[in-house]
Specification:
Layout lengths: L8 E5 L4 H12 L3 E6 L2 H10 L4 E4 L5 H8 L7 E4 L14 H29 L3 E6 L12 H21 L12 E8 L5 H7 L2 H9 L9 H12 L10 E4 L7
Parallel strand pairs: 1-2, 1-4, 2-3, 4-5, 5-6, 6-7
Bound molecules: NADPH dihydro-nicotinamide-adenine-dinucleotide phosphate.
The site of NADPH dihydro-nicotinamide-adenine-dinucleotide phosphate (NDP) has 27 residues, from helix 1 and helix 6.
Length: 252
């Protein structure tokens, strides 16, 4: 299946590392003009060295005002990937208010905010759009020491569904002309920097892997391919889904 994003403008958050970086590069390879948003300038420098067509935006998405200012001139966006997230693992009884607030600020509130900015532009221009939120299997399955992370991803799944409900309907008479679709991908463990945080211990990793019918963790490319599918016209009738990229983990 050939996917082209020629003539489209995409914005990817958390594009400095891991899944977000690979998504930004894949979108650029498919012809999109990509804006890469993250908070570490060195990551943006190396990203633009690797792909000179990418437009870098350096901002901490936990900061509402700074995000508003950083994205005010971002221009028309057709494709949005809300990928940035914060994971800080601790047992339930040790969760602190700061960890709770930081996690919800990045994993949920920033998704709401960036999506508002982008979707308002889409609506004002009467243009179509597709938004993919990067959630997790942790949104639907309890994982030890993942209290706050699981809670943020559960909230993100519901945010995805309500966005799909409210942004989907179109006002004009040309079929699909200003429809905005919103979906999420829900991966199992991927051995990025974040994945290594929770799953580097071989014993822990084995217990998790044994629960995945395909018997392996996901590769970054597995997640990127599902994101590209949901962004593309190949999924035109798919809206409001939380797509597991988990080798069957959530079915068991
Ligand atoms: P990484 O930690 O490898 O990359 C996350 C990126 O997001 C980094 O570039 C990071 O920048 C950026 N980011 C984090 N917080 C902010 C912020 N406040 N403002 C701007 N940028 C920020 O994570 P992954 O690639 O593994 O994760 C990507 C997505 O996939 C996340 O939503 C995660 O929850 C989800 N996911 C990951 C899984 C895994 O096992 N890896 C499994 C399931 C879902 P910096 O490094 O500068 O903080």
């Amino acid at each position: 299946m050939q996917i082209s994003f020629e003539g489209k403008r995409a914005l990817v958050t958390g594009a400095g590392k891991g899944i977000g970086r690979a998504t930004a590069l894949a979108l650029a390879r498919c012809g999109a003009e990509v804006t890469a948003v993250t908070r570490t300038q060195a990551d943006l420098d190396s990203l633009t060295q690797e792909c000179s067509s990418v437009t870098p935006v350096c901002v901490d998405l936990a900061d509402w005002e700074a995000t508003e200012a950083a994205l005010q001139d971002v221009g028309p966006i057709h494709l949005l990937v809300n990928n940035a997230a914060y994971a800080n693992l601790q047992p339930f009884l040790e969760v602190t208010p700061d960890q709770f607030d930081q996690s919800f600020s990045v994993n949920v509130k920033a998704v709401l905010h960036v999506s508002q900015i982008v979707a308002r532009g889409m609506k004002a221009r009467g243009s179509r759009g597709s938004i993919v939120n990067v959630s997790s299997q942790a949104s639907q399955c309890a994982l030890r020491d993942h209290t706050v992370y699981c809670a943020t991803k559960g909230a993100l799944d519901m945010l995805t569904k309500v966005m799909a409900l409210e942004l989907g309907p179109h006002q004009c008479f040309v079929l699909c002309c200003d429809q905005i679709r919103v979906n999420s991908v829900n991966p199992t463990v991927v051995m990025t920097e974040m994945g290594r945080l929770g799953w580097s211990d071989p014993e822990k990793a084995k217990v998790m892997m044994d629960r995945i019918p395909l018997g392996r963790f996901a590769e970054v490319e597995d997640v990127v391919n599902s994101i590209l599918f949901l962004l593309s016209d190949k999924s035109n009738m798919t809206n409001g889904v939380t797509l597991p990229v988990d080798g069957g983990f959530l079915t068991c």
